[in-house]
Structure of 2Fe-2S ferredoxin:
Amino acid sequence: MPQIIFLPNDELCPDGAVVQAEKGESLLDVALKNDIHVEHACEKVCACTTCHMIVREGFDSLEESDELEDDMLDKAWGLEPESRLGCQAIIEDEDLVVEIPKYTVNLVSENH
Ligand code: FES
């Protein structure tokens, strides 16, 4: 069972968290089921950037992002080479270390 380490995030998990995940789960789902309430404004359909996460370790074990995800990520605050959308990043066998960025850009609420 892969182990996921969420690094401390002032608002969402001040002390960080070490959790177990199942292969095939998305990073976002693992965060949510462990009470790390990452925003997911588009309900996980790859149409926002609020679930942006940075995979500090184990990035290469994840299946590559597709074009749609890359297009969305371009709009994310604090984009890094190891950025992923949490709802699109599917966990494989490897352990991961994940950072949840301090800010998100909520396109949905900003546009309305
Ligand atoms: S929840 Fe909107 S892209 Fe992941």
